[in-house]
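Meet my pick.
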Amino acid sequence: MTHVLPTIATSLSGLRRQWRGLCSPQPGSSRLHHLFSHPFWVGLLAFTAAVLWGWAYPLIKLGMTAFGLTASMTGGKMLFAGLRFFISGLIILGVARGMGRSFRVRRLSDWPFIVLFSLLNTTLHYAFFYFGLSHSAGARAAILNSLSVFLVVILACIFFKSDRMGRRKVAGCVVGLAGILALNLGGAESGGFTWLGDGFIILNAVCSAVASLMTRRLCRLVDVLTGTGISLSLGGVLLVVGGLVTDGALPQVTPAGLLYLGALIFISTVSFMIYNRLLLTNPIGKIAIYNSLIPVVGALTSCLFLSEPFYWKYVLAVALAATGIYLINKGKG
């Protein structure tokens, strides 16, 4: 019996050390890092964020209707968008505080970059998006907005050594861009290019692509969760201020409108937390290409819940976007 006790004690000590190793975060090997870098979880999380963002298209248009906002109410649309992102940013900052994340910015001189990122990632990005969506069919806007995905892949290969433009990426981008061009097939009765609709969606896509490239540097200046919260809340404040300065208001406040707003806040909070964390530990192109799923979800949900007509060219455009995803990700672990 006496020789067994030391053995048991040694085994228990070993188990304690293993348990501490699992529970204690270690630089570069924490379970959180593993979750956001394992191929299976990376794909699932990126897919989840994309699906949630796809649902935003019908919810935004339904929310505008519920609040009594028309296409000409620019200030009201900015106010609607600003409230969404300001509240979402505050929630993320609260989560960051609860998790003990650092709120420290590396240097005072880094704040201009953070403000610029907030301006591009939230204020301009979603001002253009809400303006364009109010003048366009939800399905069409969802497909056109996938332009940002291919811009990110192309720009990431230019500015980051970890992202290389191979034959599959070239083929995927070409096929995906062909899907966007397919939106202009057919006659005028099936929808054509408009500056107020498509033009603003394209500007939104450019802002989104540039902000995605800036995300990696932002994560070096401040904790990724804190930085996400700051960019959304600050960008949201700028949208609210812009809306109030232009005499924006919500003509009516209804339970349905508040429900849609709450759903949009949930989408922003969860999707941005997932997406920005994935960009920190993975090549930008590998994550951003999953956003090509957004037009699939956005087009389907818009047609189902907004009673929009589903033209044959939408099927072609979505098929080409999905093919682009397959080509770019084929052969990745």
Remarks:
- The chain has 14 helices and no strands.
